[in-house]
Design a protein that fits this description.
Strand content: 5-15%
CATH topology of the largest domain: Rossmann fold
Order of helices and strands: HHEHHHHHEHEHEHEHE
CATH superfamily of the largest domain: HAD superfamily/HAD-like
Number of strands: 6
Amino acid sequence: MLELAIGVFWVQFEEFSICDIVKRAIWFVNIRNARKGEKMKTQLVKTRVIIFDFDGVLRSASWEGLLAAYTKIILSKGKDPSRFFTDMETFKNWFDMDWHKNIERIDGGAYVEDTVTNALFHTHYDPYVKLFPWVEQLLAHLSERYYLAILSSSSVHSVRAELGNVARFFNLIVGAETVTELKPHPEGVYYVLNHFEISPENAIIIGDTIHDINAGFSGGIWTGAVPWGLGEWDELLLLGAEFYFEHPSKLFEL
């Protein structure tokens, strides 16, 4: 349906700007999602496990923090950061949500587990981010109905340290050291499904980036996107997740 909508507007290219075309495509996506809404709510009754991404969903995310951390990592390896990026714009173009790939580009070879580099990253990144104030109330509410899990590209230690006492609401935390492949690879999704011994239709992943949603797609589970993280909201809308939570209060409706 989306492809047809874009095609119709493209035929009338002379009448609409590219911006108009994108806006109208997003409008069609919203209409499509609204029409699926009631059916999805019925299906969501089957959900037993909610899988949260961490950074950008439950904890704030920071481009400034990422830039600072990777600059320190590159310097620690005796290399010049300007070989990779020179400002925020070039950093965003260089950066990959799968941080294994970032390290591979810096090292010039296949990724090798490096606890020193991982610790250096969190030393310089974590001060830029914090848990959102509404998280404890949300988790207390949702834990009455669902099993809760985290699937994060951060380390389990970093996630647990930030959660503190709130970690008690989670039945499972999967971090970068738990799996071999990071999102968008579905390995982490499969890990969660196997842990709880459930089928894909019984789980939903909630994330802020295309990588999160694509991991859900590949794993065959429900997907939900939020706009307060690092992902571009327009891109997430066009991706076609089953649910869009435009404000944290919407998560309480699950």
